[in-house]
Amino acid sequence: MDFKSSDTITGPRTEDHLPHTAQAAAKIVIVGGFGVGKTTMVGSVSEIRPLTTEETMTQAGIGVDDNFGSKSKTATTVAMDFGRISITDELVLYLFGTPGQERFWFLWNGLFEGALGAVVLVDTRRLEVSFDVMGRLEERGVPFVVAVNDFPDAPRYAVGELRQALDLSEEIPIIRCDVRRRASSRDVLMTLMTFLHSLAMSGATAPGAASA
């Protein structure tokens, strides 16, 4: 087969190259129910062009997928989102966004493998979808923080109320965010890294949900 010069494979863009100062990397997963903003978060904070696996939603999903609060959403992640951010000159985070549709949750186990920690994105209009998400992380022993994505029409609750509603222990950080804003998404990741550091320093295991 003859290739034209325009067909030449040139590899990653210069801006996508790993910084030469990087000495350590960590895998972080972004999890949550359908439409909570996982793809948006990865895209807003990633310093490289993010990889997405979004597909157009079709009539086949009616009655199968719960798209409450996301009526205008026309695409959904079917495998994962991927991005990268340098926290310091030496530390790089690889971000993996999980699919939110319950029928794709079988992919989560592979995405959780080797993860240092996780961000659980929460929509206060649908707090109940977060329980299975957090339960899966606890089963795998993956420490996490909870980030409340402030949708314009979503009810706002005090942190104490959210902690009680989600049945979370006092140790697990809860932070509000707007995943459309890079600085806000980065603050969430910094909260997670601070939490992971505190666990490492104390020698504690990942805290789970509060005991009944």
TrEMBL record:
Source organism superkingdom: Bacteria
Pfam families: ATP_bind_1
Keywords: GTP-binding, Hydrolase, Nucleotide-binding
InterPro entries: Gliding_Motility_GTPase, Gpn, P-loop_NTPase
Keyword GTP-binding tagged: yes
Similarity section: Belongs to the GPN-loop GTPase family.
Protein name per its UniProtKB record: ATP/GTP-binding protein
